[in-house]
Amino acid sequence: MNHKVDHFTSLTHRGSRQKSMHPLNCPNSCLFLSVLSKKKKKSQATMDSVRRFYVVIMVLVLGLKGISVVVMCEASTERCEFPALYNFGDSNSDTGGISSAITEVPPPNGETFFGHPSGRFSDGRLIVDFIAENLKLQYLSAYLDSIGTNFRQGANFATGGSSIRPPGYSPFHLVIQISQFVQFKSRTMALYDKLTSNRKTPPLKSGLPRPRDFSRALYTFDIGQNDLSYGFQHSSEEQVRASIPDILDQFSQAVQQLYKEGARFFWIHNTGPVGCLPYSFIYHQSKPNNLDQNRCVKSHNEVAQEFNKQLKDRIMSQLKVQLPQAAFTYVDMYAVKYALISNAKNQGFVDPMNFCCGSYYGYHIDCGKKAVVNGTVYGNPCDHPSMHISWDGIHYSEAANFWVANHILNGSFSDPPLPIHKACHYPTNM
Prior knowledge:
By secondary structure, this protein is α/β, with parallel strands linked by helices. The chain has nine helices and eleven strands.
């Protein structure tokens, strides 16, 4: 898709851009060169002295009179200019993968923003779309989509139903997604320089990533929910909990593989409160004392919280040590989504256990399908999707995705607490 950034200006920080000082304009992973001569530069009095600080990595004296080259990294004041975005995940961030590989995601999906099915399990945009808008990038084309795709500013390897480890609902688990990326990068590197800019037939050079952008891109993950959901359906909660270390071993291996391929900037979502999905409420509410004050399935949320605890520890205590040149941002999707559900009415939404499209109450009718039962038509979408947190009982509406994105992209739910446009910095690595 080639939609540009028009719709999310409330999330865009419009400060001045000093590209010569920006880490992503430098050759070595958030390091930039500043040539200092005898003529001293004027100090910038307007810069906050508390936030503006530099970590001096190395000083190279070149032997030229009065000139030194200082390699430095500014930790928090410069905006990152990510040239591309690569996403790995499930249906929460699928922008057309499963629709291209298996079957179309039918209408009324996509009706609110795109006006037609867009391969997304929602009435409109997903959080990954708002991430792209915030970074001033085009919406991501699905890697599996062969029609009308443009990969210059990244690609989306997420597919509906995917999990970190097999088995699961989808064959496109994370190992496969990483393999697809490796193949995608390899073919791009081999082909890019062979193509001319004036070529008129596919593949077009303008539709391929620039090879140098792979190490400068932001790599995002929104995956893990299906590992838990599939486990709840096919095993006990105790077995699901016991499987978490192995799931995270495979997640770590995926990140390490991307690092070997040159990825350096990672934005990782933990899993949301799966027990708060209307689907979970409908099918698991019968157990005594199984619901919390928001009517979420407590036991499922407790497993999700344990997953997130171990995920954060894996990132902060292991991956950051093993991959010292990487910058990691851990995003607490559980906290922000639970906050929305807890305050649904105050935020202008209806009961969070209601959903807009499809039905699970007595008759399982997927969104996009209809059924007539005793003269009553089931499956029609609601009239006001923007008033619902849940679109179809499992996936969020565009309005809810916008609300969540608005709260995570500014760094309020991140560790380190930096907005996404500063996710190339290393405040805790240095």
